[in-house]
Amino acid sequence: MNNSTIDLLCRHRSIRAYLSTALSDEQIDCIFKAAQAASSSSFLQCSTIIRITDQDKRQQLAHDAGEQSYVMSAPEFWVFCADFNRHHQIDSSVNLGKAEQLLLGCIDTAIMAQNAVVAAESLGLGCVYIGGVRNHIDHVTTLLKLPRYVLPLFGLCIGYPDQNPDPKPRLPRSLIFFDNEYQMMDKTILSQYDQQMSQYYSERPTNQKPGGWSDKIPTTINKEQRDFMLSYLHKQGWITK
Predict the structure, then answer these.
(1) Cβ neighbours around 207 below 10 Å, total
(2) Strand-pair category, 47-51 with 76-83
(3) 183 and 79 both lie in a single domain
(4) Is 192 found in the same domain as 99?
(5) Which of 162, 171, 180, 192 has its CA 20 to 30 Å from the CA of residue 54?
(6) 240: containing domain
C-alpha cells in the first residue's frame, strides 16, 4: 500500500549538485514551519536552526566540513543545533549537563531536520546532510557565536537538484526489523546485500567504488572517530553530570 507521502519518502536521495535558483521566502517559511512542527520531548523545543547567508561564513564552513563545495553552491545552508541555552536564559538555576539532555537534544533536532528535508523534497527540492561541520567543531562554535549549552550537530544543504542519482539500496528488512527481541545477523543475507551494493557502486555514473557495503564499515567508522568530541562536549556544558 503506497500513497504520495510514502512514495516521496522512498525516493529520497542525497543531492550534492544544485541549480543557482534561489528559494523564495514562502518556500523557506514552509520548510521552517514543517521543521518546527516536529515532535518535541516534553515540549522542551530544544533545537535551533542557524541559516547561513554570509558567504564568508559559508566558505569557512565548507572548508571545515572537508572542502565540501556544495555547502557553498547550495542556495540554502542551515546548521541544526541542540540548544538548552534558551532554557538557561529562562531560568539559570535549571539543572543542565545531564547525559539525557544530550540525547534529547540530538533526537529532537534530528527529527526536526528530517521534517525539513521531507518538506523540501515535497516542493521539488533536494537536500544533503553535512555531518562534517563537527570536523572542526570548536571553530564552528566560534564562527557561529554559539554559547554554552548549544551544540552544532549537522548542516543541511537545500536547493533545486542539478543531478538525479539513483536511491541507494537499503539493508534488507530482516537485518534491521525484529519482533520482540534483538536478533543476530544472518551473514548469508548480508552477503546478498553486499553483492547488490557492489553492483550499485560499480554502475552509478560518479564516485564508483569497488566492493560491497560491509567491507567499508571499518574504514567509515574509524574515519568518524573525532576523538576531541568528549572534551568539547564537557567544555560546552554537555554530559558533565
Answers:
(1) 8
(2) antiparallel
(3) no
(4) no
(5) 162
(6) 169-241
The 3-state DSSP class for residue 165 equals coil
Q: What is the dihedral of CA 174, 111, 11, 177, to 10 degrees?
A: 10
Among 107, 140, 167, which residue terminates a domain? 167
pLDDT digits (tens, 9 = 90+) for 137-174: 999 999 999 999 999 999 999 999 999 999 999 999 99
> Does 159 share its domain with 186?
no
What is the number of structural domains in the chain?
2
Burial class (CB in 10 A: 0-12, 13-18, 19+), 16: buried
In a 10 Å sphere around its CB, with 0-12 CB exposed, 13-18 middle and 19+ buried, how is residue 119 labelled? Answer: buried
CA angle 6, 164, 35 (to 5 degrees): 45
The answer to whether the beta carbons of residues 161 and 180 sit under 8 Å apart is no
Q: Are residues 136 and 28 in the same domain?
A: yes
197: cell is 551494493
DSSP character at residue 239: S
